[in-house]
Specification:
Two copies of one chain form a homodimer. The first copy, chain A, has 371 residues and is α/β, with parallel strands linked by helices. Helices cover 41% and strands 16% of the residues of chain A. At the A-B interface, helix 4, helix 5, strand 2, helix 6 and helix 9 of A face helix 4, helix 5, strand 2, helix 6 and helix 9 of B. The first copy, chain A, binds a DNA duplex (16 and 16 nucleotides) through helix 2 and helix 4.
Chain lengths: 371, 371
DNA sequence: CTGAAAGCGCTAACAT
DNA sequence: ATGTTAGCGCTTTCAG
């Protein structure tokens, strides 16, 4: 029984107990793939394994890292923790990390350069084997300075022209939204983008504007925003106050789109009759609010970002990847769809435009009388 | 200029460059609080500091930890990463960690016992100085087994009877919701709680039921749910299908409340005329949806959880803490309030019940014509 | 004021 | 099949 209460058992303890050297213990506890398995006699192996189990031995990750100068750890820099987008990306990263017996250390940077540098260095202090940046700024040169260090990295979600990244096909997404509005016969478009340093908003807005201009329609107005509920609402109020009132709004973030819907509703405007709205990320809120939204597999983007990084750590050549996007149509653009929408969010299919499925019947609910 | 491209500089390099021993370098780079500053001659100090700066020296956190058996690191176990609640708690923890020059390592457990154990051990392998569990289960004994290790821990958000924790005043919150409904003249109440192993839902439902029964009203029905949009909607449909249709629903999570609102709306029911709704956590969505919600300072809960843990690490005696809750009233219970609600979420005041402020005028919006 | 020596827990040549 | 030796980068007695 592992009744030890204070000290983690060491290989030395095992060695002493079994009567062998620490080297042997180390070898047994780290079965080397290359050499079959004749590193020790069956008895020794058994004895060591039994002692290890009995003492509750666990590797000291720090000692191993120090010795091997490989920490089996990757750092992940997130702009914020706790929003649907970064959480989904992180989740994919974390899955891959676990599959490879690695640990993902996270840090949030709030998109503040000082904090970002501080946290990056902190990760490096912990000898991370690599870093994934989910908070790249288009205009920054910080990443170049990181490239100076011996630690490889990849970017995810937001791109930077000079580095390997895994992004959504943001330009295509913008075009997809534009085409949908055009198909619906809308003429006066607006797009709520994000800060200029985020490639996501910039690229989406670019694709949106391009497609509309190419269609011979008036160029849409682009609003910068902070990509949250409040700023989405603010942007909408600004639109309402302007002379150029739109009949279609594309918000590059569902949070902002919620702000849009909320303000429109309270101004007595009908969605989609007066204004059609498209959001981004197809969050659970999208389906609850029946919001047409663009879907991208964020989880998989995270996965790929780490997989690329690991490939890079194995000295493979790696290249940027662009992930496909789809449009899930709901009642915020197409009132002919059946109401509801509390079923599971539509799965992305092979086609780029799909209808939301008829909401699934509610599963039988376990009801409990009050105690 | 730090043009090194491959190796982190070590104290040995500095020592060699300056012409002193590593011991001296170490002393200078770790100014000891107790001894004023006469550890080295001013020249040596200057030379070392200059060399360190020039080489871009940084501590090797692993080596330091291994030597001192103090990692300046705490582990945080979250049920999920990426939801508003855990993110807010984590944010408070992270702030305190930074203030103390520590690093917070996170891991998500999805409330799965196997994953939780695995991740906890992984944290211990990294020699964390302490752990904060945000994912306690009421019925588990896993924490007891962790207590066997030499690593101290605290709980946050969810409580466990046997361990120190920082929680919201969940029972009071339930009573607050009940009293508000009672004041509004509602009679047929329901509460959407969470899984039975979460103290949060259990305690809130308990307070809610108690207050209602004490008021001489019929005991509310308690629905278990997964505390997300879909399950909130499912529970609502179950209510609609039952004979006991409520005129007031308390959901112990805003996500579930969104599902409630969504289903009610599509069933053609008016909120709050037909059904009043109260949510929990006062998320940004609350104000966008004009949802009356209970507010608790999650960020501060996180702060306190780590502050208590640090106190514990300094051998101080620590005790559980309960954080106050407030009710922010919006139109989902009180239609007399002005419409809107896109302003900032109401700040909790000293009183326990407050009205949402009149929505702030939208700040001037920076509008950019399309490029 | 400074240095020599020991060692945290572990792995990796290099023996034998 | 196993042990010896050396050392990752750092801190910490203990001597000078």
């Amino acid at each position: 029984m592992p009744t030890r209460i204070n000290q983690r058992p060491t290989q030395r303890q095992i060695a002493a107990q079994v009567g062998v050297s620490v080297t042997t213990v180390s070898r047994i506890l780290n079965p080397d793939e290359s050499h079959p398995e004749r590193w020790a006699s069956p008895e020794t192996v058994a004895a060591i394994q039994q002692a290890a189990a009995q003492l509750g031995y666990r590797h000291n990750a720090l000692a191993v890292s120090l010795r091997t100068s490989r920490s089996q750890t990757v750092g992940v820099l997130l702009p914020v923790v706790g929003d649907f987008v970064t959480a989904s990306i992180y989740s994919g990263i974390d899955d891959v990390a676990r599959e490879h017996g690695m640990t993902a250390l996270t840090a949030s940077t709030l998109d503040e350069p000082v904090l970002r540098a501080e946290r990056t260095f902190s990760l490096l202090d912990h000898l991370v084997d690599g870093i994934i940046f989910a908070d790249a700024h288009l205009d920054e040169d910080f990443l170049d300075s990181v490239a100076t260090q011996a630690v490889p990295f990849t970017l995810v979600h937001r791109r930077h022209p000079d580095h390997v990244c895994v992004t959504a096909d943001d330009v295509a997404a913008g075009r997809l939204a534009a085409q949908h509005f055009i198909d619906l016969g809308r003429r006066r478009m607006a797009v709520i983008s994000g800060p200029r340093f985020m490639s996501t908003g910039v690229d989406r807005a670019q694709g949106f504007v391009d497609a509309i201009v190419e269609a011979g329609l008036p160029a849409p107005t682009v609003f910068d925003s902070a990509l949250n509920v409040k700023s989405g609402g603010d942007a909408t109020r600004a639109m309402l106050a302007s002379s150029h009132f739109p009949d279609a709004i594309f918000a590059v973030h569902d949070g902002a789109a919620l702000g849009v819907l909320s303000v429109l509703r309270h101004e007595g405007l009908s969605v989609p009759d007066d204004v059609a709205v498209i959001g981004f990320y197809d969050t659970p809120m999208s389906s609850a609010m029946e919001l047409t939204s663009i879907n991208v597999d964020l989880n998989n983007m995270g996965r790929r970002a780490l997989e690329l990084l690991l490939a890079r750590l194995s000295d493979q050549q790696i290249e940027s990847e662009v992930c496909p996007v789809t449009l899930t149509v709901r009642r915020s653009t197409d009132p002919s769809l059946p109401p509801g929408g509390h079923g599971p969010t539509a799965e992305p299919l092979t086609s780029t435009v799909q209808r939301a499925p008829h909401p699934a019947e509610s599963s039988p609910q376990h009801v409990n009388p009050a105690p």
